[in-house]
TrEMBL record:
One of its GO terms (cellular component) is checkpoint clamp complex. This is Proliferating cell nuclear antigen. InterPro entries: Cell_cycle_checkpoint_Rad1, DNA_clamp_sf, Rad1_Rec1_Rad17. It is found in: Nucleus. Keywords: DNA damage, DNA repair, Nucleus. Belongs to the rad1 family. Its main location: nucleus. It comes from the Eukaryota. GO terms for biological process: DNA damage checkpoint signaling; DNA repair. Transmembrane segments: none annotated. The lineage of its organism: Eukaryota, Metazoa, Ecdysozoa, Nematoda, Chromadorea.
């Protein structure tokens, strides 16, 4: 796409489909916060109560990234943004994002086989709305860490009992399990540490166990399905960090991370 680059922000990428997959995996609220700086871009979706999703796209995955201020930060309507990226379905779709400053729209331009689509999205200043929750994540407070290949985890999350209000997640050095208690009764799914689906599993206690609202786990289902590797960590407050590695054709990775607050700590067996 030929155009001048005299913008406050100019971002170009050869494969727009990758960003559409990211947006689709975290589309659970009406708005997202879009951030851009010289190091890359970030999308943040926050329900201001129990969960926050972050996607990090580093400079190296873009063909061009020019941000002429310290940071561009916008509150963008999520559905409109995701639909823009979905206009063309091919992997050859070229993307350009431009922004010229306060009061100006975020302009999404896509080109596929000579056909150009352009969408101007009016955005809001995120400072005029709720501040994003700071989860104050500290690695030294992590009680459990599991790194999984996605196949078995995808099946478990997809088949969770939808009538269960919560999902109890338990990690020991020997297994990770998911327990629901709904209309079908108590159902436990387990992945043992010796499974070929497990790359790493450790617990700083004999058993680390917390429960999370079913709907919060369900929000992550699309990310589970899209991922090639999953990292799950739980800290001493029960806050769960779930990182999803989104596969690309090269080695420059895209990560989506969900922070989820525990609903109830389970003390019984």
């Amino acid at each position: 796409m030929a155009d001048d680059r005299d913008h406050m922000m100019y971002i170009a990428k050869e494969n727009a489909k990758e960003i559409h997959q990211v947006l689709k995996s975290m589309k659970f609220k009406e708005y997202c916060t879009f951030k851009a700086c010289r190091d890359g871009i970030q999308f943040v979706v926050d329900d201001h109560n129990f969960q926050q999703a972050n996607a990090y796209l580093k400079t190296e995955i873009f063909s061009e990234l020019d941000v002429r201020v310290d940071e561009v930060r916008l509150r963008v309507p999520m559905n409109i943004l995701a639909e823009c990226f979905n206009v063309f379905s091919g992997a050859s779709t070229a993307l350009r994002l431009t922004y010229d400053g306060p009061g100006e729209p975020l302009v999404v331009s896509l080109e596929d086989e000579g056909i150009v689509f352009k969408c101007s999205i009016m955005c809001q200043n995120p400072q005029h709305h709720h501040k994003m929750y700071d989860f104050e994540w500290k690695n030294e407070n992590v009680l459990a860490k599991v790194i999984l290949k996605p196949n078995k985890a995808k099946e478990i999350v997809r088949d969770l009992d939808k009538t269960s209000p919560t999902v109890r997640i338990t990690v020991t050095d020997g297994h990770i399990s998911f327990l629901t208690d709904g209309e079908l009764g108590k159902i436990k799914s387990m992945i043992p540490a010796h499974s070929d689906q497990v790359e790493h599993m450790e617990a700083c206690r004999e058993r680390v166990t917390f429960s999370y609202r079913y709907n919060l786990i369900h929000r992550m289902e699309t990310a589970f399905l899209a991922s090639s590797k999953i990292s799950l960590r739980i800290d001493n407050r029960g806050v769960m960090s779930t990182q999803f590695l989104i596969p690309r054709t090269d080695s420059k990775n895209i990560f989506i991370e969900f922070f989820t607050i525990a609903e109830v700590e389970w003390d019984d067996g």
